[in-house]
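Collaborator request log, item 7. Partner lab (contact: R.S.) asked for a structural prediction of DSD1 dehydratase to inform their binding assays.
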Amino acid sequence: EGAELATGGTRRGIVVSTLAEAHFFAAGGFDDILYAFPVPRWRLAECSALAQRLQQFQVLLDSPQGLEMLLQNPLPGGKRWLVWLKLDCGNGRAGIRPTDPEALALARAIAQGSPELVTLVGVYAHCGNTYGCRDIPAIQAIARDTTAAVLEFVTA
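Returned to partner:
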């Protein structure tokens, strides 16, 4: 019910951190779900099934190996993998640093490689490094730094 309220009743544009959550929301009629963790090889079949079932099932990529894995496992029926490039702007859990020279090359490889198989939707950053903050100014500083890093990367 909360997710339906949060999406204005559209049941679209929801972000999940586990595939169990993705299945839960898909069963509840959500058909536009972003799995906000780079796809591990051992979860590829499950992600593929969700991508085939839903209108839009989006995933994160943060490495050339992840891109190659999706390219080697195309979705059937004319569907494409919809991917966001995961940037690590200080959280240190997942993603590629936006200042890493490979990050821009990876973004270009996703966008220009095989768009009929893998399509770049955008870039994604999670400010999980705010969890240890003790006050609002500290959270705001991380949000500003993350926003600046993402905008600088996208501009490049």
